[in-house]
Amino acid sequence: MKKIFLFTLTSLALILSACAPTTPSKNADPTPTPGSMMMENPEAAHMMEPITVPNVQPATESTGGQPLEYRVEDGVKVFELTTKAVQWEILDGVFVTAYTYNGTVPGPMIRVTEGDQVRVVVKNELPDPTTIHWHGVEVPNAMDGVPGVTQDPIQPGETFTYEFTAKPAGTFMYHSHYEGDVQVGIGLYAPFIIHSKESEANLPVVDKTLMISEWRMVDGETYAAMPMGAMEPNYFTINGKSFPATEIITVKKGDLVRLRLIGIGQFIHPMHLHGMPFKIVATDGHPVPEAAQLTKDTISIAPGERYDIEFVATETGQWMLHCHILHHTTNDNVEPGGLMLMIEVVE
Ligand SMILES: [Cu+2]
Fold first, then answer.
1. 171-229, pLDDT tens digit by residue?
2. pTM (2 decimals)?
3. If DSSP codes are grouped into helix, strand and coil, which group holds residue 16?
4. Boundaries of CATH 2.60.40.420 in the chain?
5. What is the CATH number of domain 206-346?
6. 213: CA distance to ligand 1 center in Å?
């Protein structure tokens, strides 16, 4: 008995010494603040500072994620994107300083058909370099948008052209891959939808793409929100808007509704639909065989993931789609807000 007791004490001492933190420096602050972290790690400074852009103008558009027009040159669909900073209104009277594609959050939706030749001309009007990554699209390596690996960053004032064949069909997105922790958080993302070449048997009447993300706004200053002390988000947006500024999706009773949910922030969001269960018909752009389609009413969307869900609007009324991490349904800690969206089913 004594032996066991001694052994336990020794083990405990060993465990405690192993767990003890390395000796802190004399002036270390136990709770890091943006200021103290910048001093300790100057390379982290960029992510801790407010986003400041000289003479940044209010956005001229108020809705993000709208289909982008293109022209056809020698059989190639040519899209034009300009990266630029704007003041983006996420909620009545609440403006963030956003980095955008063509002045909206999300940027414009690129919509093509499987097999299309796609050319995207990107002009960088940001004060920082950038690149675009075509998340989930099967592009040639040189078009993958990873700075320092597959291309040089697109410097301010420069233009870069991406070209690839659109494949496979599904729900994808494009986003910055340069200082992604900052640039993606403050708006450099947009939907990229590749339609199937074959006509779908059971086409939904309503087909909406919803991009979910987070913001940090303190004293009128925008910061890139992150899962890190002192940088946690206090605003949450669906397609660049916080409830009650989120879109109201109106559908008719009996309609088949498809929602393409895209996680583009740095947090997980278990999205819950009231009233009507849904089926998961595609994950990360790839169709789920019918026999494997789960029926659920809550689905967690992790960063980078896409889920296409479908349901038949069987009941009239106003049905809420919202995140079930309930703090995410607040605006600057005030409920209701954030990740809530109304689906209105009418006769
Ligand atoms: Cu959430």
1. 999 999 999 999 999 999 999 999 999 887 789 999 999 999 999 999 999 999 999 98
2. 0.87
3. helix
4. 57-195, 206-346
5. 2.60.40.420
6. 9
